[in-house]
UniProtKB/TrEMBL annotation:
Encoding gene per record: mazG
InterPro entries: MazG-like_dom, NTP-PPase_MazG-like_C, NTP-PPase_MazG-like_N, NTP_PyrPHydrolase_MazG
Alphabetic keyword roster: Hydrolase
Source domain of life: Bacteria
Protein known as: Nucleoside triphosphate pyrophosphohydrolase
Length: 275
């Protein structure tokens, strides 16, 4: 019966759960899968989430389908290990998130009116989450902001939490002034302090930059991903133009590559204008 399920392409999630159970079977499973634990699988989970985001950014819907499957597999992997250890099951995880979604949307699944602004709904959502944290004995303002988040994203979330209790600059002017101050401190540190102190001052600048993004309504992680993609695209343009004349970046110099960079930018802008 189990083999029938594994080969039934229409069996949905039950098929995937059985595949994972078989992979983890201590007697007949895959040696690599059997050896894994939560700590060894966690990096793959993070990587798959980023690959989902990458496919979305590139609007590659066919690849997104595959990446979503890879990410789903990570949830199934963790829940199988959780079931083996007696912590939770796939069904209990599904029940938990379903209950959470119902509880957090009383204006959809309960008696509350849907006649409210998006801002009001956001405030309501945050109030519900605060009550949930209180129920978990997470009493500190910053409790529950995951340590494992990418540092830039965690900075954004920490500052967002602090702002809820009034620990925030009133406008972007103060944030920009702080960036200027931190930049001056980094210059001073570069010339007079240790590497560890220079690293600290550099971190301070990144932290304030994340805060500026929050004040501007910009997700710093998403903004940096977009800039990384832009840099990659333009540098590949430099490589293509060099290849057209039989050269590589190693055969070039900064002045030539700077000129090609400007040309790639100009072509992008011309193309955007035509669009």
């Amino acid at each position: 019966m189990a083999d029938d399920l594994i080969h039934d392409e229409e069996a949905g999630i039950e098929r995937l759960l059985e595949i994972m159970r078989r992979l983890r079977d201590p007697e007949t499973g895959c040696p690599w899968d059997i050896e894994q634990d939560f700590d060894t699988i966690a990096p793959y989970t993070i990587e798959e989430a980023y690959e989902v985001a990458d496919a979305i950014q590139r609007r590659d819907w066919s690849e997104l389908e595959g990446e979503l499957g890879d990410l789903l597999l990570q949830s199934v992997y963790h829940t199988q290990m959780g079931a083996e250890a007696g912590h939770f099951t796939f069904q209990s995880v599904v029940r938990n998130i379903s209950n959470k979604m119902v509880a957090r949307h009383p204006h959809v699944f309960g008696d509350e009116s849907r006649d409210k602004t998006a801002d009001q709904q956001t405030r309501d959502w945050e109030a519900i989450k605060a009550a949930e944290r209180a129920g978990k004995a997470q009493k500190g303002t910053l409790d529950g902001v995951a340590i494992g988040l990418p540092a830039l994203l965690r900075a954004y979330k920490l500052q967002k939490r602090a702002a809820r209790v009034g620990f925030d600059w009133p406008s972007t002017d103060e944030v920009i002034a702080k960036i200027t101050e931190e930049a001056a401190e980094l210059v001073e540190a570069r010339d007079t302090l240790s590497h560890a102190e220079i690293e600290e001052e550099f971190g301070d600048i990144l932290f304030v930059i994340a805060n500026l993004g929050r004040h501007l309504g910009i997700d710093p992680e998403a903004a940096l991903r977009a800039t990384n993609a832009k840099f990659t695209r333009r540098f590949e343009g430099i490589e293509a133009r060099l290849a057209a004349i039989g050269k590589t970046p190693a055969d070039s110099d900064l002045a030539e590559m700077d000129a090609l960079w400007d040309a790639v930018k100009a072509d992008e802008r011309a193309g955007a204008d035509k669009g």
